[in-house]
Amino acid sequence: MPITSQTIQCDHCGTPFHPKAQERFCCHGCAYVYDLLHEVGFTRFYELKGNTSTPPIGTRAFRAVDVPWLKTAIQTAEDQATTPVVTAKLGLRGVSCVGCVWLIEAIFTAQAGAVSININARTGIIQPRWECGEFDAVHFAQELQRMGYEVVPPTDESASSSVARELAHRVGICGFFLLNTMLFTLPGYLGMEEDFFLAPLFKLLSALFATLSLIMGGSYFFQRTAEALRHKLLSIDLPIALGLSAAYLGSLIGWLTASTDLIYFDFVATFVFLMLAGRWLQEFALEKNRQHLSRRQPEQQTVTNFGGPNDGERKPVDQIKSGEAYTLAPGEANPVSARLHSDASVSLEWINGEPDPVTITRGKLAPAGAINVNLTSISLTAEEAWSDSLLAQLLEPPKDNFHARRLQRVLSIYLILVLAIAGFGGAAWLILGNQAITALQVFISVLIVSCPCALGVALPLTDELCQSILRRYGLFIKNNDVWERLSQVKTVVFDKTGTLTLETPRLINPECLNMLSEDAMLALYRLVERNLHPVARTLREYLLLRLRTFSDLHDECRIHQSIGNGVYFTDEHGACWSLGKSSWTPCGNETEIDQTTATELRCNGICLATFQFEEEVRDEAKNAIQWLQATNYQIAILSGDAQQNVDRIAAQLNIDSPQSHAHCTPGQKAEWIDHHAPNSALMIGDGANDRLAFDRAICRGTPIVDRSLLEGSTDFFFFGRSLRCLPRLLQLANQRRQTIQIIFALAIAYNFAAITLCLAGAMHPLLAAILMPLSSIATLVVPWRLMHADSA
């Protein structure tokens, strides 16, 4: 599914999407930030960004700033400062290119009291320096939030040491060792006599640098081989370690016995460098993907004690015991099953997939995972401890016992053949030719030339090309074994809410906003500014797109809430403004409320606008489902939402009713996969109710939305509002499989020719050193077919 003429790229982030009408942006967030950057004159951001694709802004620009922790951090920094200039370390999400760095610096420089700021785009850490008492950190965070960047508590940099960085260090050092090994080996190949006075020194230095290369670089493969064998598994690192061991031990024997045909020190250094470079390319690509992932913690980590000697103090959720009272602030998730002290509106989207909040009356149980969508905090009494909570079970680390069975079989056959051929060749020369040194040379050379050098370089390049293609579609791979997983997928299982549909409802009649007066628009913004209801969040986005100065409004009018009906306030002129269910007014007869999905804005009981909303299917979801069905994938919807809602979405996407399941609990989703798609299901979900199903699925993916929860459990994730990336992923997995088969065929042909020379006793260290890079270069041509096929 290549990018077609019907698909365009977002003017802000570059994400491909299918436009509706004259749209230029993939989401409201990108449109908002684009207009804001042009309004304030920060368009240089796009010059520095260039063609780099960045994650869509989504709802990030419209969210409120988490102020309490930030105020505490800034105050602590100023209290501990010993100079007039204060510095603090803060975390920042959303930094993805040099344009982002420039924009953040520009925003900081415009703040009062700003001195300088250090930005580490790789770790997501910023260190602002400001004049003590002159800097408004909250305003700075709000300005960054408007641009799509989120200030968060800093992470531990020491804990973020990556495999890619470790490999980069090893590659650099082993590159130095390789150059020196070749420097002292080359004179011998060019004809330096054995009795030349520098020959022994050159051999010694060549052996020394090859040894250092083996210690620094080869140890990486030895450690990984040992780890795999401890788990009774075979990995591609085993033949690499075997070839390195044979080459080094043979070289030591040849050096000590003056048998030049056994000395492969240059091969050791070259092989280590090439294998490390290939492995670094793989890890670097994965790390680059993970950096696009906003590591949010949507689950509630602490709660506030309610009553007793510790009233008002925060405590971790794992310390909650049955019978204890606590409060939840707006937007926080209930960690355990608990009884409400008063009526409250909560969202059960994490639990059952229903997007609309529900009302739970006083004394009733609020389940674990229910999110407080009220304007104020709610108090509850726990009915269970955290360890017994459903949310605790859903948030446990994922269980993953997947093994690449195909790779295990191939490696088993490969190792048996190589060892058998090497042993047979060595034994033949020893028995028939009575030549021990030649027999040893044949045995070692077979192990050396059969090392997967070409695969170690060509496979990482193939993976990087695949991932670069997928990044253009807004999809990012987290683990390289996703390709083996995808090859076993036969059934694609979707959650509904937030997966097949978007997380917030679509306003069907946005023209109603154009008919409102300025006072009515201002009143409406006040009603939705801090409201977490999905309808209110949608209206807030539309309002900010029309008048961005609303974001500068700091209004202290008190908003009241009628649980289950709506919100209202009285302005400075005595007018009562309300937003809620059709026919509801704060002072009206609430028994006659119209139960339609319409939402009304009223002033003193007079209806000024009626807003209609609907659950919106993701862009190109229908085309994606059709492609999956045409390529013989089974499709299923497992949703906790009501049957009529699931049926409506299934009908839009032409999914048969028997494959659309509603009212599913987390356990029922997992059981369905166990019974209908064991070891063959690709699960696409986004909430806590999908976690158990994720454990049963062989492959998992999630869209990144406002309340993403499953990023840590997925094999891939995707941004934007389109599903076009899913067919492209599966299509690319098939192309990659065909490419790998060609690479294997070339490797087999090379090994056949090289092993024939080895068995004939004609292999020489210089010839091996030449053939190895040549075979790698030859196989590198094959992966470029992927890029050519995608651009054609």
Automatic annotation (TrEMBL):
**Superkingdom assignment:** Bacteria
Report membrane topology: Multi-pass membrane protein
Region (Disordered) location:
292-317
> Which InterPro entries does the protein's record reference?
ATPase-cat-bd, ATPase_P-typ_cyto_dom_N, ATPase_P-typ_P_site, ATPase_P-typ_TM_dom_sf, HAD-like_sf, HAD_sf, HMA_dom_sf, P_typ_ATPase
Pfam families on file:
ATPase-cat_bd (PF12156), Hydrolase (PF00702)
Cellular component per GO, a single term: plasma membrane
Provide the protein name. Answer: Copper-translocating P-type ATPase
Name its GO BP terms in alphabetical order.
Answer: copper ion homeostasis
UniProt domain Putative metal-binding: residue ranges: 9-54
Transmembrane region(s): 171-190, 196-222, 234-256, 262-281, 411-432, 438-462, 742-762
Where is this protein chiefly located?
A: membrane
Q: Keywords in UniProt for this one? A: Cell membrane, Ion transport, Magnesium, Membrane, Phosphoprotein, Translocase, Transmembrane, Transmembrane helix, Transport
This entry's Gene Ontology molecular function terms read: ATP binding; ATP hydrolysis activity; copper ion binding; P-type divalent copper transporter activity
Localization terms from the record: Cell membrane
